[in-house]
Amino acid sequence: MTDQLSRVFAALADPTRRDLVARLASDGEASVGDLAAPYPVSVQAVSKHLKVLEDAGLVSRGEGGQRRPVRLEAEVFDLMTRWIERYRREAEERYSRLDAVLAELSDDQSVKQSVEQSIEQSIEQERGAS
């Protein structure tokens, strides 16, 4: 995967990695050992999960010696939010247009009666076919 958005969504597809992100969001930075403590897997396995999150840009590790705390890189969530917001906005616009059409239909009694007759005919045809 080349783009960051794909790497971020792929990284978050795993529930353990989502849990690590949630813990870092609520608790702040932590050591790999602290992050690994609640899981029934090795520290190395958690380190591999953190490497995936780090490659996606979701977390970073601090500088310095033995203790390299892991911290969340919150700005990556802005990238995800913009992508999701774009499609949410487009869906809302489509629903608004549909609401407007339905409102026009409900105001026009002849169209409403025509739609109701059409629905009733369809139901009768289905009953006759079964």
Automatic annotation (TrEMBL):
Domain named HTH arsR-type: residues: 1-92
Gene Ontology terms, MF aspect: DNA-binding transcription factor activity
Region named Disordered: 106-130
Highest taxon of source: Bacteria
PROSITE patterns: HTH_ARSR_2 (PS50987)
Sequence ranges of Low complexity compositional bias: 111-122
Protein name: ArsR family transcriptional regulator
